[in-house]
Amino acid sequence: MNDSSTARMYDLCATEDRRFSPFCWRTRLAFAHKGVPLETIATPFTAVPEIDPGTKRTVPTIEVDNSLITDSWEIAKWLDTRYPDAPPLIGTGPQESLTYFVQEFVNTTVHLGVVTTVIADLHEHLEPADQAYFRKSREARFKKSLEEIQAGREDRITDLRRSLHPVRALVREHEFLGGDAPCYADYIVFGALQWARVTSDFPVTEPQDEVTIWRNRVAALYNGLGDSAPHYY
Ligand SMILES: N[C@@H](CCC(=O)N[C@@H](CS)C(=O)NCC(=O)O)C(=O)O
Q: Is CB count within 10 Å lower at the N or C end of the chain?
């Protein structure tokens, strides 16, 4: 375990150090939002079981204060409790409930749209050992080949863009989903779009879309943290 007081996050990585996990992006931005330093540990899929052998941890998992915290929502809640004087991420009461709603909408509708748009491209970016694991596990989950899952994305992309309408409607009126300043909901939606732009040159949103303009605004936060990883557009 890490002795230093700086938290460390196990972060999925692909070739060229592409950091693509939508959940890990939420956590990276959440730490930056609180002004708390975070180191990342590049972790291929096949190394995830080694984080805490014998358990079924996912990423993000963070190492902090000599213990491990898994799950992006749990980590954001921990940050709010540990750093109450910095701007809240999730908050409490109605804000917490609405943020949870955003999370579940993104985890289901938006993530399904993104993964079926970029899954074969993502595979192309993995190291060979990870490619074998990823193909086997995802093809078993979808009961189709990666190429079949991604096929037809040109026709399906309109559905994904339409599903982002709630975001579009809000950012037409406000700088961020949080209003004048970003909040955890911004990072949840951003993570989904970041996953796509880090792994594929197929644009999930069009350049002139208000969603793209907002996404660029979030990417530029915290000294361009979201633009610091290799990405296509
Ligand atoms: N609910 C979890 C989901 C995390 C999750 O699904 N992480 C994926 C990567 S994006 C994972 O660890 N996958 C391991 C694997 O597929 O073997 C969270 O919000 O942190």
A: N
pLDDT at residue 5 in the model: 84
Instruction: For 165-189, write each residue's pLDDT tens digit.
Output: 999 999 999 999 999 999 999 999 9
Contacts of 228 (CB under 8 A, 6+ apart): none
Give the pocket of ligand 1 (CB within 6 Å): 12, 21, 23, 45, 48, 58-60, 71-73
Supply the pLDDT for residue 4.
63
Contact 70, 60 (CB under 8 A): yes
Q: How many angstroms is it from 134 CA to the middle of ligand 1? A: 13
Of 9, 13, 23, the residue with max ligand 1 atoms within 8 A of its CB, to mutate for a pocket test, comes to 23
Positions in the chain whose pLDDT score sits under 50: 1-3
| Residue owning the nearest CA to atom 14 of ligand 1 | 58
Angle at 21 between CA 16 and CA 27, to 5 degrees: 115
The arrangement of secondary structure in 7-82, i.e. its CATH architecture, is 3-Layer(aba) Sandwich (3.40)
Domain limits, the chain: 7-82, 94-227
- Distance of CA 125 from the midpoint of ligand 1 (Å): 18
* Among the four given CATH numbers 3.40.50.300, 3.90.1720.10, 1.20.1050.10, 3.40.630.30, the one describing domain 94-227: 1.20.1050.10
Q: How far apart are CA 57 and CA 49, in angstroms?
A: 7
Report the alpha-carbon distance of residue 23 to residue 59 in Å, rounded.
Answer: 7
